[in-house]
Automatic annotation (TrEMBL):
<keyword id="KW-0808">Transferase</keyword>
<dbReference type="InterPro" id="IPR029044">
    <property type="entry name" value="Nucleotide-diphossugar_trans"/>
</dbReference>
<keyword id="KW-0328">Glycosyltransferase</keyword>
<dbReference type="InterPro" id="IPR001173">
    <property type="entry name" value="Glyco_trans_2-like"/>
</dbReference>
<keyword id="KW-0472">Membrane</keyword>
<keyword id="KW-0735">Signal-anchor</keyword>
<dbReference type="GO" id="GO:0006487">
    <property type="term" value="P:protein N-linked glycosylation"/>
</dbReference>
<dbReference type="GO" id="GO:0004581">
    <property type="term" value="F:dolichyl-phosphate beta-glucosyltransferase activity"/>
</dbReference>
<dbReference type="InterPro" id="IPR035518">
    <property type="entry name" value="DPG_synthase"/>
</dbReference>
<protein>
    <recommendedName>
        <fullName>Dolichyl-phosphate beta-glucosyltransferase</fullName>
        <ecNumber>2.4.1.117</ecNumber>
    </recommendedName>
</protein>
<comment type="pathway">
    <text>Protein modification; protein glycosylation.</text>
</comment>
<keyword id="KW-1133">Transmembrane helix</keyword>
<feature type="transmembrane region" description="Helical">
    <location>
        <begin position="6"/>
        <end position="33"/>
    </location>
</feature>
<feature type="domain" description="Glycosyltransferase 2-like">
    <location>
        <begin position="89"/>
        <end position="220"/>
    </location>
</feature>
<keyword id="KW-0256">Endoplasmic reticulum</keyword>
<comment type="similarity">
    <text>Belongs to the glycosyltransferase 2 family.</text>
</comment>
<keyword id="KW-0812">Transmembrane</keyword>
Length: 298
């Protein structure tokens, strides 16, 4: 009987491993065949221009052009009528005090269709004029004076290889406090997501999702030119690409306040991001997406 029980246990273990392997192969196959090519930066005619202060159309610049400003700030906005004005007042007030960013402050790019947060930021980045490009969320959760912390983080990374470097704002130092305010379910989702990010895509960055990131122009061009994901998980792929190209990354603690009105639906949004993380890893692993070719092109 003991021998029979042992055989059944071994058989069950082998069957379990075989089923897990079959499931992984099936998921990898689905990830491969459903992979789309990198979304081209197609601009509708209306997206090639912005209205200047006189109400006249002007052609948007390209990130391939030489920079004409020290800093560009890209703020994706979708149904942000309540939160955006407060954030813009704080940002402009701070930037005017610094007095080195000058006039011609705001350009609005109206997208014909919803491209997702990543797609909107990509469009803004490719229309930027700054030597450095800051990504910032419309909710104003991170206070703008913290851009100085990111600038110092970039300076500390010098010398920059090929003028490329990234400073990521981070809320990781607030994790203990945030856990105390969250439900057990949301805390479990958070830990699960962080594990998947570490296991599948990005090592060494504790908070990949903070929307406050500062990139040199060259780093923004290289990473966003290689970006496939246009929805919520785009930050993870962006940092995955940066680590592939060995772009130095600094993670900098920033002040952060939770602002009501988030577009994320806790369970379904995290489920979608978990699927995106798995597919990011499998598509690069199976060769459906390639970065070595992009490196040669650059």
């Amino acid at each position: 009987m003991a021998s029979l029980s042992l055989q059944l246990v071994v058989l069950g273990a082998v069957l379990g491993v075989a089923l897990a392997a079959a499931a992984l192969i099936l998921i990898s196959f689905v990830a491969f065949v459903t992979a789309t090519e990198m979304p081209p930066l197609h601009r509708h005619e209306e997206e090639k221009f912005f209205l200047n202060a006189r109400g006249q159309k002007e052609t948007l610049p390209s990130i391939r052009d030489s920079p004409t400003k020290q800093l560009s700030i890209v703020v994706p906005s979708y149904n942000e009528e309540k939160r955006l004005p407060i954030m813009m007042d704080e940002a402009l007030g701070y930037l005017e005090e610094r007095q080195k960013y000058g006039s011609d402050k705001i350009r609005v790019i109206t997208l014909v269709k919803n491209r997702g947060k990543g797609g909107a930021i990509k469009m803004g980045v490719f229309s930027s004029r700054g030597e450095k490009i800051l990504m910032a969320d419309a909710d104003g959760a991170t206070k703008f004076p913290d851009v100085e912390k990111l600038e110092k983080g970039l300076r500390d990374l010098q010398p920059w290889p090929d003028q490329m470097a990234i400073a990521c704002g981070s809320r990781a130092h607030l994790q203990t406090e945030s856990i105390a305010q969250r439900s057990y379910f949301r805390t479990l989702l958070m830990y699960g997501f962080h594990f998947l990010v570490w296991f599948l895509c990005v090592k060494g960055i504790r908070d990949t999702q903070c929307g406050f990131k500062l990139l040199t122009r060259e780093a923004a061009s290289r990473t966003f030119s290689s970006l496939h994901i246009e929805r919520w998980a785009f930050d993870v792929e962006l940092l995955y690409i940066a680590q592939f190209f060995k772009i130095p990354i600094a993670e900098i603690a920033v002040n952060w306040t939770e602002i009501e009105g988030s577009k994320l639906v806790p369970f379904w949004s995290w489920l979608q991001m978990g699927k995106d993380l798995l597919f990011i890893r499998l598509r690069y692993l199976t060769g459906a997406w390639r970065l070595d070719q992009i490196r040669k092109m650059n």
